[in-house]
Structure formats: structure tokens, C-alpha cells
Amino acid sequence: MQTRRFIRVPGMALAxxxxxxxxxxxxxxxTPRVPLxxxxxxxxxxxxxxxxxxxxxxxxxxxxxxxxxxxxHGYAEEKDHxxxxxxxxxxxxxxxxFSGFLVPPxxxxxxxxxxxxxxxxxxxxxxxxxxxxxxxxxxxxxxxxDVLVSYTVNADCSGTITLQLxxxxxxxxxxxxxNGAEFAVVQTDTGSISANVSRxxxxx
Length: 204
Known about the structure:
The protein has helices at 10-30, 44-80; strands at 91-102, 113-124, 128-137, 140-153, 158-165, 168-176, 182-187, 192-202. It is of the alpha+beta class. It folds into 2 domains: 39-82; 87-202, Porin (Beta Barrel), CATH 2.40.160.90. It has an 8-stranded antiparallel beta barrel. β7 (182-187) and β8 form a beta hairpin. It is elongated and about 80 Å long.
């Protein structure tokens, strides 16, 4: 039986040591250890910006809320202070001029006829008054004195006015300024086209 001899070669042992070290180094570079817990650090500037954004959103919410409350309050206040008129709203002397047309079926009118005039209305503040006017109808002049006036006034400052002229009543719808300083009228009789605005010049 032959005995085999193993000869240890110093160079081979050194090579094996280098190979093992290389494997360990490669393993340490390719598979780094991950810590079991990590702490996330946010930069101070970023935290400040986020805080500013949050405060800004809160500010916008407050502005919107205050705006809605203001609108609601303003609407309620406007509703509470809605204009209210009475017969006493119209009191004093009112002057105005007017122009328009008379058309059929106005009695005696067969074609469109121009008219213009100046007038004064005196209201007593109780639904009564007097009227004076000088009127030009297609160039023919007519004067009216001490004509009786009756009028109505609604709470919303609308109303009616009637002039009791010798040939018949003249009726108009009326819209009054809440302070009684002026009113606008449009004649509502068939065959008459006329409108004007009267302004108060005296409270007597």
C-alpha cells in the first residue's frame, strides 16, 4: 500500500486567504446592513413653509366665514331698512314739465297730436291736494287752476294720482322717492302718452 503525501504550498494558502477576504468584502458592499429603526429629519425651512401654509389656509377660512356673515348681516339690515312710504311722504309744492301725445280714441282727436306743459302740484299729506297747469295741445293753449287732486300711496312707495279736470279725470301711476323729494308719473288713460318727474321745491 502506497502512502500519498500532501505537500502544503505556502503560496496556495495565502491565495485562499485573499479569496475569503474578497468574498467577505464583496458581501459587505453589496448587501449593506439596514438599521432596524430610522429617524426622519425634516429640514427646518420645510417645516417653516408647511407651518406658513397651514396658517394661510386657516386665514382664508376665517376671511370666507367673515365675508358670509357680513353679507348675511347686510342683507338683514337692508331688509329691515326697506323704504316705507305713506300719504304724509308727499307734502308740499312740486314743480315739473311734461310732454307727450294725444292719440285716438281721445275725444276730438283723429290723429297723433303733440302736447306739452308746465304744472305745479300741492299735496296736503293726507291724500288730497290742488293742481295748476298751462298746456299746449298742438299749439293751442289751455290753462287750469285750482284743480282738485286725489292720490294714494303704498308702503313700497308706489301709488296713483288723479286730476279732476273739467272735461274728466286724468289718471296716472306714481312712483315716489322714500324721502318724498320727488316722484315720477306716467298717464294710464287710453289715448294719452305722457310721463314726467316732479320735484319738491317747498314743504308748504
